[in-house]
Every structure is written in structure tokens, then in C-alpha cells.
Amino acid sequence: xxxxxxxxxxxxxxxxxxxxxxxxxxxxxxxxxxxxxxxxxxxxxxxxxxxxxxxxxxxxxxxxxxxxxxxxxxxxxxxxxxxxxxxxxxxxxxxxxxxxxxxxxxxxxxxxxxxxxxxxxxxxxxxxxxxxxxxxxxxxxxxxxxxxxxxxxxxxxxxxxxxxxxxxxxxxxxxxxxxxxxxxxxxxxxxxxxxxxxxxxxxxxxxxxxxxxxxxxxxxxxxxxxxxxxxxxxx
Length: 235
What we know:
Helices cover 37% and strands 25% of the residues. It is α/β, with parallel strands linked by helices.
């Protein structure tokens, strides 16, 4: 079926089942399905659709983006990169007098200054920026949540390990992925608290998750953001 609302058109399927309530489901390709009790009127179905319209559009876009896959980045004016959960365009400038290439964030853009206009130079400048920002943000988060723990981290390191967002070893040494600087602050806080909780409970047992939930009650939302967005956290 097709429904028009707020100047937009949405295609969806209806699946009548032996159930007592209606629900909206979006598959990995962005297809929308309403599951409803047998005999539900079209009026009620469309009412539900319109109540959830913004959420449906957002989730459908997310799923379609994931299906299309990660596009190849270009290192020129206007290309966008994630920072603290938002996409910002870059502006590249040549400056042969600087000692080292660097990046500055000024509210609406990522300004990149390089000695040579080469893609690899711009890419490496961005990576250094994310490394530096990640270290600053992680240290801020640790200070903010330290009062919840009797143990303090022995060391904090930023790494290029793409297998984990963070790790904690048996010596309370914490390591974090530099790409975390691309995530919203609340997601960074969750990853930091997750690893700090491993200073108390090394395994993911019930005690561990109880401690995580006590400090970050909405931690599942943070995990969901990472699951949906990690594919585009790249330079």
C-alpha cells in the first residue's frame, strides 16, 4: 500500500495476525510492515502510521544507508565527516609555513590545514585530530564518572584497534578506539563507563551489567547507536 502524509509518500505492507495490538517493523532494507490484529480498520492503521511517521522516515533512511554501504571518501571541500555524532563538511587550506598539518573544528566545519594538497596528508591530519580529541574526551569522561569507582585506571591509551571500542585488562589499563571521537558524547561516556566497570568485573556477567545499568541506565540505546552507525565512522 501507499500513503501520502506531510508531502511525503510511503510504501508499506500490512500483515494481519492473531495478536492484540498493532506494531510497525522495518527490515534491514528499509521496507515497512504493519502487523495488526485481524479486522483492524484502515483508519486505525493510517493513524498509527502518521503517529510514527518521523520515526519511520528516520529508521528507513538509516537502513537504506547501511544497505548502500560505505561510500569512498574524497578529501576536498564539502566532503563530510562525523564528529561527536554529527556530520560536518571539511574545508581544506594549503599553508606551506606550518610545522605540521592540523585540523580545527569551529562550530560548523572541520578546517584542515596542510603543507601539501595530497589526499593521504589530509587523511592523516584528520586521524591525528580524532586521536587527540578522543584522548581529551575519554579523559574528561573518566574524571566525570570516577566517583562511581573505588579503583582508578592505571593508564589510558588511544589505539587503532578496529575490533573493539574499548578494552580493560587485568591491570586496569584502559584502551579506546580513536574513532570514538566521531560518536555523540553520551555514547563516549557509555563506552568509558563500560570499560571502567571491567576494572571491577572482568567478565560480562550479571554483576557487570547491573553496575553498567546503575551508572548508565540507557546503555542499550548507546549500544544501538554504535551498532547502526559504526559503518560510517571512518576517514
